[in-house]
């Protein structure tokens, strides 16, 4: 009984569950905001939001089921902290499924912004699938072994691999979006401030999820005998869910800024994204919601150029 470090085991699980519950509430609020602000969104996007909310809610249920196991079923028996309840084991794979869904969402966004560049998208999806497989293996081993000590002894590498892969995918997604958004900027363009905001959102959401995963992995490697890593792992899925919903809900603010720019300049600010780097026909990708084309004539050169806009972040001009 004296060998059990209660603050770093029971305490870590309790604090992790509390933070996870708070973030789960934020996911619910973000879901309500999304439903009110974007009733005209495509059905598949609405289904994705519902899936994220459902997985997050179920994950929270599993977390508190794990706490019930430790604090109620085995109350007064701290040595039972080494047991792995099935609810905790299932929370691992549920976190992976939710993370995989978010990774696929951003991979699809990268695919559209990069003009269907499979060489940029496939590595991200491949590593995301490997992360999901690793988490499935981790859950299976936990259900079989039912002991943290046995799990650390036999397949410690498996859980480490899953966390490492998740961090790598986050870095790839953040770096790819940064590059694609950065390349959409034009010298003196009025839409550049909107693109800069998108770059900032990308770094904020990507860095938070990646940092949480890396810190959990460091705790797992440096101190595997306590459960600080698991308390942090409870929070990871909530951060991914919030990152996706925040990304979707910020479109309203970007729409307002885009309309404000259009009204103040007397022209559509999206036209500012037209390339000024040479002559002839060029394709310019901008961060907006669906695709449309604009044709314009440059008087000095008398060349008609077609400019394509991939509307991944803002809105479809035809609905405005």
Please describe what this structure looks like.
This protein is mainly alpha-helical and 320 residues long. Mean pLDDT is 80; it is low at 265-320. The protein has helices spanning 6-37, 43-73, 86-113, 118-145, 148-184, 192-222, 228-249, 251-265; strands at 291-298, 303-310. The longest helix has 37 residues, at 148-184. Keywords: Membrane, Transmembrane, Transmembrane helix. InterPro entries: DUF6534.
How would you describe this structure in keywords?
disordered C terminus; mainly alpha; two-stranded antiparallel sheet; DUF6534; Rhopdopsin 7-helix transmembrane proteins; 320 residues; single chain; globular; 2 strands
Describe the secondary structure blueprint for this structure.
Elements lengths: L5 H32 L5 H31 L12 H28 L4 H28 L2 H37 L7 H31 L5 H22 L1 H15 L25 E8 L4 E8 L10
Antiparallel strand pairs: 1-2
The largest sheet has its strands arranged as 1-2
Fill in the CATH topology: Rhopdopsin 7-helix transmembrane proteins
Structural class based on helices, strands and sheet pairing: mainly alpha
Count of separate structural domains: 1
- In helices, the fraction of residues equals over 70%
* Strand residue percentage: 5-15%
CATH architecture field:
Up-down Bundle
CATH domain class name: Mainly Alpha
Largest sheet: 2 strands, antiparallel
Helix run count: 8
Which stretches are low in confidence, meaning pLDDT under 50 for 5 or more residues running? 265-320
Radius of gyration in whole Å, from Cα?
A: 23 Å
Order of helices and strands: HHHHHHHHEE
Shape: globular
Kindly report the average pLDDT value: 80
The overall strand count is 2
Question: N- to C-terminal separation?
Answer: 66 Å
